[in-house]
Amino acid sequence: xxxxxxxxxxxxxxxxxxxxxxxxxxxxxxxxxxxxxxxxxxxxxxxxxxxxxxxxxxxxxxxxxxxxxxxxxxxxxxxxxxxxxxxxxxxxxxxxxxxxxxxxxxxxxxxxxxxxxxxxxxxxxxxxxxxxxxxxxxxxxxxxxxxxxxxxxxxxxxxxxxxxxxxxxxxxxxxxxxxxxxxxxxxxxxxxxxxxxxxxxxxxxxxxxxxxxxxxxxxxxxxxxxxxxxxxxxxxxxxxxxxxxxxxxxxxxxxxx
Length: 257
Ligand SMILES: [Zn+2]
Hints:
Number of strands: 11
Radius of gyration: 18 Å
Oligomer: single chain
Distance between the termini: 52 Å
Shape: globular
Bound molecules: zinc ion
Mean pLDDT: 91
Strand order of the largest sheet: 1-3-2-6-11-9-10
């Protein structure tokens, strides 16, 4: 099956009318048939190198509870990383956590352009179209990106169960950090384990930044969402916080509400 045979972009709950739009850039570990001959290692396809394990299930449940549109590319980040700028060196990785990704070594400019055209561009155009439509209807939805991260990276354990990643616009981040930190059982990463300086904020920045929409990236440690119970627990926890924020109040800092 080629990319043409199966859409590289999935839109769930396209008529969702809630005040949030959800994206899940690393939802899928699928390698389209045409790239299988490149020999991406099978064991790597189950790990965070290929996708964000658990993230899609959390995003889906959130989409249901919040009646939010959900966008995700159904192609592994090993083929192309939709959360990177088109000119980023990490758009098509040649190594991941020190391990070579042989299939991507020596990718030609034409092949790079082809992956951009068939996966990256339609994904971002779909999000663009949605946000344009919502704005034309007088709505200002908040954009939420759901990711997961590996508990150990380069041999170092990460203490946070969840990380809130944000740029200049702190509205959503402040709300989430405040509410999550109220639970003494949680260690909340504030721009940890990543921050926009790590070039991991592309999707949110591209779509929410110029429009001035409230936005945030939520990173959940993947051992927290490795099964259905964990996925449900995290989706419900986040949904409760977001629902309590209510449309129109998201833009107001927690101290003022
Ligand atoms: Zn991710």
